[in-house]
């Protein structure tokens, strides 16, 4: 896992360079489509959440997350003739995602596959395949394949925006920022120490960063075998915040700029006032850093692109925490690299 985290700057650079030429094909494919629907599971679903926010905020296109079971179990007869359906799977062989893409095409959708395997079933059946260049990923927890998917989302949203090249300069900075975060590891050890002190943890982010918060929570759960609640800022405010006490460590993620920083800073103060054992913050601005007990440096990137690097400190924390707990971060208990949702489809492991 540590080695694959370290490979992310190169993987991101390769992926961005490889996918940019697909922008013309993406614009043509989506020319008469009114909405984008994402289909994914697990870490890929968290990448899709980022894609949804970015398409709506940056490209101005209505987007949503589709439930694969609507296709695979309910066989719903939806009219998707105005939809672009984006199916996301690292392996390109998760059966329900492959089946959902075929169902969407039969219902009139145009399809885009986001996968790390150009020879996969998903890539072969899509109208356009965005093949990420993460290289083979051996550790079960997705790291470089996940950030490569985020790069694909940024390219997709850029392609469908009024100015397709508007995000290019910021995207070009991502590999260097990821390299800096990996090298400096600012705050990583202290954050892992705090998380190791209690089994009670919650993770929160908002807006563009929401998918990153869910991915950080998933990584802690699957790699460190800790029950973690990953919640949006809004959902946390609407009740669950009441459970916070001296047994809880809160991990908050924020971009360095944008409309959500002040709210995340207020949340850090509120959690501290409620007696949380510790409040850890990744990213944010100076005010956010001052509001948390342990600050972990985030990327110097604008909010729209920040998630490509903001997850990296969380990956470093999780890998460190797993080893501190005496666990193997490369092969968490009970997990496999390719996951099939239904046991009857679980034939690839």
From TrEMBL:
Keywords: Repeat. GO terms for biological process: carbohydrate derivative metabolic process. SUPFAM superfamilies: SIS domain. One of its GO terms (molecular function) is carbohydrate derivative binding. InterPro entries: GlmS/AgaS_SIS, GlmS/FrlB_SIS, SIS_dom, SIS_dom_sf. Signal peptide: none annotated. This is SIS domain-containing protein. It comes from Phytoactinopolyspora halotolerans.
